[in-house]
Specification:
By secondary structure, this protein is of the alpha/beta class. Helices cover 43% and strands 18% of the residues. It starts with 8 loop residues before the first strand and ends in a 5-residue tail after the last helix.
């Protein structure tokens, strides 16, 4: 029997692709309520559909984690909707990849 996350509230940042998406899909498959964040609505909608197809309960939030007010609103929303409950946080959002590649080999 697979572990169940029924009734658990999860947040996966940067959940539209890659590792974040994979984690979000697995949490959804285990029955969790999964708040997923990303900057692109189409990618969020696709991920939400996949989570739902696996038996999860997705809550897509289009936002930018580089904007503090967006982050504050996200946690206020989760707190209000889930009575302050957040069981699992996967902090996966990272926007520095392009900077790393464009700065590689350059002196400081």
């Amino acid at each position: 029997m697979s572990p169940t996350l029924n009734g658990k509230v999860c947040l996966v940042t940067g959940a539209c692709r890659g590792i974040g998406k994979g984690i979000a899909l697995q949490l959804g498959e285990a029955g969790a309520i999964v708040y997923i964040t990303g900057r692109t609505k189409a990618n969020l909608d696709e991920c939400a559909s996949e989570i739902k197809a696996r038996g999860g309960h997705p809550v897509p939030i289009q936002m930018d984690h580089g904007i503090d007010t967006d982050v504050e609103k996200l946690f206020q929303k989760i707190s209000a909707e889930q009575s302050g409950k957040l069981d699992i946080l996967v902090n996966n959002a990272y926007a520095g990849v392009n900077t790393i590649f464009t700065s590689s080999g350059k002196k400081f």
